[in-house]
Specification:
heterodimer, A: about 450 residues, alpha/beta, Fumarate Reductase Iron-sulfur Protein, Chain B, domain 2, FAD/NAD(P)-binding domain, 3 domains, five-stranded parallel sheet, 16 helices, about 35% helix, globular, disordered N terminus, B: about 450 residues, TIM Barrel, Alpha-Beta Plaits, eight-stranded parallel barrel, four-stranded antiparallel sheet
Amino acid sequence: MSENPLVTVAGSALQELLPPLSEQEAVTESARCLMCFDAPCTHACPTHIDIPKFIKKISTGNLLGSARTILESNLLGATCARVCPVQELCEGACVLGSEHKPIAIGRLQRHAMDYVYGRKIDVFHAGKSIGEKVAVVGAGPAGLSCAGELTKLGVSVTLYEKRELPGGLSTYGIIVLREPVEVALAEVAMVQRLGAKLEVGKEVGVDPAVADLQKDFAAVFIGVGLGNSPQLGIPGENYILDGLEYIEQSKLQPAQLHVGRDVIVIGAGNTAIDCATVAHRLGAERVTMLYRRTEKEMTAYPHEYAFVKLEGVTVSFLSKPVKVHHENGVVKGLECIRIALGQPDASGRAAPKEIPGSNMLLPADQIVKAIGQNKLSLASRLDLKTDKGFIRVDSNFETSSPGIFAGGDCVRARGSASTVMAVQDGKLAARAIYQRLVNHG
Amino acid sequence: MADLRTNFAGIRSPNPFWLASAPPTNSGAQIHRAFEAGWGGAVWKTIGAPVLNVSNRYGTWRYGNEKMLAINNVELISDRPMELNLREIAEVKRAWPDRAVIVSAMVESKPEAWHDVIRRIQDTGADGIELNYGCPHGMSERGMGSAVGQVPEYCKEITSWVMDVAKIPVIVKLTPNISDIVMPARAAVAAGANAISLINTVNSIMGVDLDTLDITPSIAGRGGHGGYAGPAVKPIALNMLAALGRDSVVHSSRLPISGMGGISTWRDAAEFLLLGASSLQVCTAVMHYGFRIIEDLCDGLANWMDTKQFATIPDVVGHSLRQVSDFKDFDLSFKVVARIDQQKCIRCDLCYVACNDAAHQCIDLIDKQGHVTTPATYDPSSNGRVEAVSTRPSVVVREDDCVGCRLCFNICPVENCIQMVEVPPDRPSVTWDQLTAKQPEVAEDWDHMERYRRKMGIRIH
């Protein structure tokens, strides 16, 4: 067995999918890297990690230097090594991808991260104090990245987290197959050792009040992410489980998670895929995903869809839920209607149109929905300007309210929300905040 | 099908591939198996003075994913009793009359010692004798091996003692640990040897263990130089082989040369033949992969010979020797430029950085609009596979400025992506020798050189 504390104990149906690379595998794989100059993988990485540099360092046995190279650009390198959609980012841009196999950049990054976390090596330390304080709201990837970068620059940071555990979606929302909870918590602990104070169970806007934060801190960074799935507005919806809560339970209380025999997952994004994977792995006999458009429009990454198909999950395309059938509080099925695709709508995707009389009943004893996330109310409570409900920020990640910055999923009006984008937001916002403090200080 | 049969100074073998005198030829049992696998001959591991060996005797040089780019060793000559070796040599030769069985020998530098060992070898029925003047470690400290090969006079004297009693062909094996390989070869010629072989191993220290700070491999905390062999030494061996082929004394003696030093594949073998070797010896590749490699050595060589319409081994031997020249005889007007096949290019930009940092700054990055651009000019907020790939600039050679140095060609990871294309010379053909014979001043004075360049339109940037 590995001595690495970041490796989830084997034997669970949800254990981390990819095993760590052995020393020899890592060296062999790293030696395959061509060391491209001005490499496309580095361009493709939202945090622009110097990937050939960290891989070269693995090949020479300089694991500490490799980890430092990664963490300098991306403080949450251990999470990103596991959860990044590398096929769409670094590995997708690898020059060896066209005719050979791209370098396993994600797994090599994990190798370097496991090296420092496994040995409890702190790569960075708090910078010399500049005598300023910043509040960070939300201890998810954006908030942790911002907090960590600020402490490195000598800023005193307090992190406020509404939930009981820090880590945001890394802790609550990424299935264990991709990232064990311990990895997310180890990164939080690293940011705390950098000097950030963490207050959990504190919902900013309730306690403490935002005005208090603005009084006590020179700047505020908001990285609160998004909320639960929106309402479908169909009869019996209260019998439908929320996808993120479903995943959360699979991570934190797997023994208590009731999984149906016949599970329907509404939605065809990456969270829906994760829900279907959890249901399948925890014993559902049949798992069906339901999507009102077609494979072409689905928002899940192609590699995720390919994965879930291999797991044995089926997708019912061009189907829209209209009613939950239940008896005595027990779900019996989901009534759906067939859809025809019309002209492109505002999102640029074909508008779904119901085909009258095409109703059908899909048997199910558990229904989960993962159809996106609601925007949280904090923005309106703070009277911040928004774009399509997302907090509006300028190129410095500053909101319409001076001194209040924001980043991560809550500002992601364009592009796809991802951990690595949130880390980059937090990093760039930290630099902007620091510049503001230094210039105004 | 090409005829691989070989006659080397009267020693016949069904193919030119002999196992070199080394660990693979340590015993009769090994050589039986090698001959079963198809080896044409074997040079028995050197017999001679009594020795004791040490553990951790082999070290290797690992480079990237290549486990054994080179091997070094501090193993001595055969540590089995001489009588046992002689008995097994006789048995092997009886069992394999069509194969070449050559015995390597090394004894104290006394005529009677050499006379005795030569006679005893001849009694076994062996086909030939190889004189080990090359072993660079251990034996040399006792005045044998390279201690002989490095002094042409010793080389000549000891070879003469051998020739006094030799009735079978005698091959003198040379050490590369010498400033001019031609000198000991001439000594062998002068002493009447029947053939030459080269190269023995190169002096080397494999490295230092960065954990223990010991020399690696460590022999109870000590280490030292050993004989270096394997793929990494091939170019050194080819150069020495060609040097003998071009030396008038050695060449006119018509002594055949058995080539070795890093031969791992039939391609290596063909190159040794083309530069004048008429038998080939192999060790490191067998130490890595075993006797079975003989199949492709023969098969690949024969297929290549058929393609090139070489019917026999003698047709190949020395074919490329005439191309080996000194710098002074190279055509200074010859011009090639690098050309990058944009269809094959994978945009790794290794050629760009090599040319820019280490050569002549004549590869440009060209953006999608056709303008010269600089590295990493993308907006930091830009990311993702599609943006990274679709906006990546092309690498294009500015042929007017390209000096044809060939660095980009050498480092490009894609076969045939960069070609060195010959372009018409812009001045008359001339060699340095011809030029300086007519205009000696250009070699002596930069002002004259500059005038010559201006006149010829030679631009250095």
